[in-house]
Each structure stands twice: as structure tokens, then as C-alpha cells.
Amino acid sequence: MVSRVVFGSGSFDQLGEILEPLRAGSQGTVVFLMDDVFEDKPLHGRVPALGQDLFILISAKEEPKTQQVDTLVARISAHSSDNPVAIVGIGGGTLLDLAKAVAIMINNKGSAADFQGWDLVRHKAVYHIGIPTLSGTGAEVSRTTVLLGPERKLGINSDHTPFDQVVLDPDLAIGVPKDQWFYTGMDCYIHCVESLNGGYINTFSKSYGEMALKLCEEVFLTDLDPEESREKLMMASWHGGMSIAYSQVGVAHALSYGLSYVMGTPHGLGNCLVFRHLEDFYPEGVRIFEQMRKKQGIALPQNVTRSCSESDFKTMTEVAYSMEPLWENALGEDWQSKISLDQIREIFTKI
Ligand code: NAD
Ligand code: ZN
User: Fold this and answer.
1) 94 CB less than 6 Å from ligand 1?
2) Which end of the chain offers a freer environment for a tag, N or C, measured as fewer CB atoms within 10 Å?
3) Which residues contact 110 (CB under 8 A, 6 or more apart)?
4) What is the pLDDT of residues 273-298, one digit of tens each?
5) Degrees (nearest 5) of the Cα angle 84, 85, 87?
């Protein structure tokens, strides 16, 4: 679990104070990884960077890659012979995952691709701090960092992955474009539906999932004032992340991984595109999703897979089918008798 958390409007300004004891008595610097969407924004000027600190702006247009993590680690090592005292990630799921992966890889030799999987990380990560600016993925609380590697899109799942400190400042999400707010918010809603309807569910996960689901319904189906809405979605993301950390996602994520592997579709949007066609698996979840989509006036892209070739469909179907734990969670141990490659392909053609 994340050991330290601060929450509240304006809490970003506590970052300098949070870093002080880490800097004390050390030559090490702090590395800030920030979404480049903030390049010309006031938040940029509020980052408490000192003399030798390394400040790197990163585009979130593409989701994190193992190669990108390796390049960042090489750059950080070249910057100073001392290990950094902290890695701070500021942004959505993309920047949070990059910060987690970089913090791990500074203390573990090899390529990030060698650590994709479960519990392969030997050495403790550098102290890492996550500051979300977009709510929904749960990356701020999860024990994984999802990376696209040379062979697969898979997380570095380990006890060293979770952040040591998270700063939850709902004001940082002011100005997120509405579509993006909805897509990433729905990642959280879908995490809850998949977790709560899966066979891996237990009371621990259920309590978090139910809380997150309730918060999502308030945010997307009622008329909250913007400040309350940002605060509630931030806490929904946290609880949704906790829920899947101790259970598993399901059919939507399996299909969305396949879609994004071939089409490069961003995670939140990909989930929305597939989820609306999953009424056979999550009837109540899909019904409420449609209510939320209509209430928020979001029109999802159409005919996304129209130009896909036969081999594209084959690859996306196979990638989706290979996500065994997700299918097992959703459909049970005999999942192979309940879903076929043809059925998966059929769903992809509807998108
Ligand atoms: P993102 O970080 O990719 O950002 C999406 C877009 O929103 C980008 O253009 C970004 O610049 C912009 N943005 C972010 N904050 C903004 C702000 N405050 N104002 C204006 N624009 C802003 O989006 P995401 O949906 O948060 O993250 C997706 C990533 O998270 C994927 O790589 C996915 O694999 C990963 N993920 C990780 C976990 C985990 O547990 N580690 C879980 C789910 C998803
Ligand atoms: Zn997700």
C-alpha cells in the first residue's frame, strides 16, 4: 500500500516540505517527471525544484514503453553519480506509471522489459511520489505500472511498485478536457464493475469497489458542483484502484488491451469503446454506463475498426484471448467453454 498520503485543495504546495527531509544530508537530487500539457501552465512554476534537480517534461500522447523507461533511467544516471533521493511523477496514469517504473529501474539492473510480470523486482525502488492530475486509472494507488514492451503490454507488478507518497490535490484536475475526463473516469467505473462482478472478489476488494462505484454514480449521474465532483472522482479512482489491486479486472480490459495493442487506442477510450458492447457480460453496468454517457453528452467515436485488416482482427482477438486471469475472473475456471475467438472478434467488428 501507499505509505503516505495528503489530500486536499492546494496540497500540491506541500511538496517542497515533503521533499525536505529526503534531501537533508544527501548530495542526491530530485527528479521531476511532468506531463508536458503543463509546460506553459502555472503549475509548472509551482514545482519546488532546486539547483541540481532534474526536471523532465514528458508527452502523454503515447502510453509508457519499456524502452522509454530505459532511456529515462540512463539520462538520470548520467545527470549525477549519486542516486536521486526521490522521483516525482506529475500527470495522469501515463506519468504516474513512468515515475513508478523509473524509480524501480534505477535500483534494479537490466531493462524494464525484464521485469514485466509478477514479483520479479529484487531491490527496493528509489523513494517515489505520485501526484495525479487526472482521476480514474487508480495508478496512484496500484501495485503495477503498465508498460508496452517489445513483446507485450504488461505491468511490473511488485511490492516495490506502489508510491511511497501520494499528493491528492483535486485542483490539479481543473481544465481536463471533458472527453478525457469521461474516458479516464469510466476506467474507474469499469474497474468497479469488473471487480465486483468477478469471481476473484473478496470482502476487502468489495468494500473498496462499492465505495468507488457509488462515488462514480454521484459524479456522472448527478449535478455536483465542480469542486465536489473533482474531489469525489479523485477518491473514486483511489478506491477503484484498491479494489482491483486485490481482485482483478475482466472482459472489458481483456478486449481493450487487444484493441489498444493493434490500434494504439488510449486506455480509457478503449475501455469505453468495448464496454458499451458487453451487455451480455455486464448488463446492469452497461445500462448505467450508457446513462452516464448520455447525461454527460459524450459521443464515442464510431467505426473505429472499419479499416482493420483480417490480420489486425486476428491479432487483437488473440491478444484479448491471452489475458487468462481476466477471463477466469469474469467467467470462471471453465471460461474457455464460455467465450470463443469468434465471439471476441464479433465484438471487435461492432466497435
Ligand atoms: P494519460 O495520463 O495518458 O493522459 C491523457 C491525456 O490527458 C493526455 O493528453 C494528458 O496530457 C492529459 N492530461 C492529464 N492531466 C491533465 C490536466 N490536468 N489537464 C489537461 N490535460 C491533462 O491518461 P490516463 O487515462 O490517466 O492514463 C492512462 C494510462 O494509465 C495508460 O498508460 C494505462 O495503461 C495506465 N493505467 C495504469 C494503471 C495502473 O494501475 N498502473 C491502471 C489503469 C491504467
Ligand atoms: Zn483500467
Assistant:
1) yes
2) N
3) none
4) 999 999 999 999 999 999 999 999 99
5) 75
